[in-house]
Design goal:
The structure is a homodimer.
Chain A lengths: L2 E4 L3 E6 L4 E7 L1 H10 L4 E8 L4 H9 L2 E9 L4 E7 L6 E7 L19 E4 L4 H9 L6 E5 L2 H6 L1 H8 L4 E5 H8 L4 H10 L4 E5 L5 E5 L2 E5 L13 H15 L4 H20 L12 H13 L4
Parallel strand pairs in A: 1-4, 1-8, 2-6, 4-5, 8-9, 9-10, 10-11
Antiparallel strand pairs in A: 2-3, 6-7, 11-12, 12-13
Helix pairs in contact in A: 1-8, 6-7, 8-9, 9-10
């Protein structure tokens, strides 16, 4: 069985203090799908324009990602450009060209509709709804988001929260959504909006899982060379969902380990521009880093 | 055997968005000594003025803190006042009156000079040196600091770093000291300045221990009601040193658990103004929270 991943499929132009890389493969679905692919088969939903470079398609195929749900239509691929500050945490968007995403309406192939694990990676909540509408009784649905949707699509997002099992967001989004600075209280408030599992991403500080009044404090894998953090959050949730699909037993019993695998995938992502480091990862390297994470937290 | 604690002994006037508490017992030595006292006997070095309220002395005595090294001299006790923003993380100093600290010269009683564990809590590096000069072959010396000393006493601080086993500082201080944003790299640079053990405090995000090229990622105990974070960092290092004094075996084998005990003590500290919550803690409550921290990180 496969993980279904919907999200953005994009060309990213990324500037850091050290380098400038135009038109890399990017988008939340690309990162999440590749990260998930190390654990389980992935079916991707998205849209690109006719300008989408063939090497990017080949990268998806290298990871055996099912592209039946990837529409290739006339027009330009979604393009995002951003610039990181010297600390590699703060970034600003320089330009966003929606291109073919402006008129995108996801249509799920029949084979997609039975996927047990559904990852609604970061994209407009209306599109996340639209995908969910087409699914037949999925086992576990997780949504990710970004500050943009809190600003311009809050009603859609609030409706979505009533339909998902898990919700993933970063610290500042959690604070913005709940108007609560304390993250433990913020997570409690988010539960009241619907999701049984709330995962707050804290970047280099790890993540907090809140579930049934129990917390799990997950570390981030420590890195001394962050090349490009773009997509790390998408890899986190992609790795998490891929692991959940691959693991036996109830989701709740596997979720803590899944989050740590998510941290590991996110760490690889940060070590290269775009998907360049992630795509070179091996299952053995993932296993080593997971084990290392254990030695970094054991006492 | 006792832990020796030197640091500031102060009256703190603390404003938060919810309350205003003038002239509470404060100072790095007060917090650290009380935190350490739950694990081991403590000998405190400091100075207060004749205006120092008797109830504060009684609080030290309640915790069996040896006060032979606490000078009570003519003049005013060091007074700090500060105000917290609504997020309870950012604070600004409203006023600092050094009082009797302006002319303080620590003199260690003979009984103090044999202490195996020495905590140079946050105070001017010159005073930390002065205390260390009087010690006879201590087993383990840890220094804490604050941004002020990075700004006005860097030469003294750099000399101190060559004399201590462990150095504790917070994220922004680590970045300021090393001019390196990445904390893993910053810790590496700090090792080159002398200390074998570098501990970076990250507040609600926990702490990083760097030792012999090995890292330990310590969580913070999650709190949903931070009343007053003043002194939490001092309690962290005080709890850590108290536990180390109480534990058998080599320091390095106990340091990870010691840091977690430090986190636990810091969490209690945040739950009341000044020392009010910390002083009511019981060994059983500490043990419960330590155990709970384990369940929050186990997978």
């Amino acid at each position: 069985m496969s993980v279904l991943v919907v999200g953005s499929t994009a060309l990213d132009s990324i500037k850091t203090p050290l380098a400038n890389h135009p038109r890399l493969l990017g988008g939340s679905a690309s990162y999440a799908a590749v990260a998930a692919s190390f654990f389980a088969p992935v079916k991707m939903v998205g849209v690109v324009g006719k300008d989408f470079p063939q090497p990017h398609i080949r990268l998806y195929k290298k990871h055996k990602i099912d592209l039946e749900g990837l529409q290739i239509v006339a027009g330009k691929t979604f393009h995002w450009s951003g610039e990181y500050e010297i600390n590699m945490n703060n970034r600003r968007t320089l330009e966003t060209e929606l291109g073919v995403f402006e008129t995108f309406s996801p249509r799920l192939p029949i084979s997609y509709q039975q996927c047990p694990f559904v990852l609604l990676a970061n994209i407009a909540p209306a599109l996340q709804h639209h995908v969910l509408d087409q699914m037949r009784r999925p086992k576990f649905v997780v949504a990710d988001t970004m500050d943009l949707w809190l600003n311009i699509a809050m009603p859609d997002l609030l409706k979505l929260l009533k339909r998902v099992d898990g919700f993933v967001l970063n610290e500042s989004e959690a604070r913005q959504l709940t108007e609560e600075h304390n993250l433990i209280l913020a997570a409690k408030k988010i539960h009241q909006l619907g999701p049984k599992f709330v995962i707050v991403k804290k970047g280099e500080h790890g993540a907090i899982l809140s579930a049934r009044n129990k917390l799990f404090l997950a570390p981030a894998f420590p890195l001394d060379n962050v090349v490009d953090p773009t997509g790390a959050g998408d890899c986190f949730v992609g790795g998490m969902m891929g692991y959940l699909q691959s693991a036996r037993g109830p989701v709740e019993a596997n979720l803590r380990r899944a989050i740590l695998y998510g941290s590991v995938l996110a760490s690889f992502c940060c070590e290269g521009f775009g998907l360049s480091a992630l795509t070179r990862v091996t299952p053995a390297a993932i296993a080593r880093r997971f084990k290392l994470l254990e030695t970094l937290t054991r006492y």
